[in-house]
Structure to design on (170 residues):
């Protein structure tokens, strides 16, 4: 049987990895399609007397800032979180672990305070954020396909108009 501490850290680590993969898929979709990043949706992972832990770590719903944060997360291979309502809204300093394993441990010990119910809430929040990222990536790809279809129709129309003009010309 696995120890509760180890189980919680592994569950958090798995959810963090899923979020990283999903946010990476969203970033790839933004870059592949050339479409702007979606407005971020804020996921409150945990709330306590000191504020709330939120992903993504952006201060405004600006898509540009969100895309920048996604690139930063992909480059460093770890998600970033803010603790809002605990002062100035600056990044939560003790979530500065170098990898998802260390970050999972920090979440378990510092944020969840080694309480399984709080760890479950964080895992569910991370999974919701990952599902949202995957859905947005899918939506961007569909939007790009629709744009390409409209462009092909527009080109066909212009070619038809050009041919009609040539036939009219003396």
């Amino acid at each position: 049987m696995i120890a509760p501490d180890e189980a919680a850290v592994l569950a958090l680590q798995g959810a963090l990895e899923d979020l990283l993969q999903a946010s990476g898929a969203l970033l790839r979709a933004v870059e592949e399609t050339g479409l702007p990043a979606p407005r971020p949706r804020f996921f409150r992972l945990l709330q306590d007397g000191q504020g709330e832990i939120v992903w993504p770590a952006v201060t405004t719903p600006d898509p540009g800032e969100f895309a920048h944060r996604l690139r930063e997360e992909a480059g460093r291979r770890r998600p970033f979180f803010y603790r809002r309502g605990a002062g100035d809204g600056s990044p939560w300093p003790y979530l500065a672990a170098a990898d998802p394993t260390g970050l999972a441990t920090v979440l378990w010990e510092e944020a969840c305070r080694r309480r399984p119910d709080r760890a479950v809430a964080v895992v569910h929040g991370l999974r919701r954020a990952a599902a949202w990222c995957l859905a947005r990536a899918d939506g961007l790809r569909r939007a790009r396909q629709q744009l390409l279809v409209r462009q092909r129709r527009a080109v066909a129309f212009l070619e038809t108009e050009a041919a009609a003009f040539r036939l009219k010309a003396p």
Notes: The longest helix spans residues 116-168. The helical segments are 4-33, 63-76, 100-111, 116-168. Residues 89-94 have pLDDT under 50 and may be disordered.
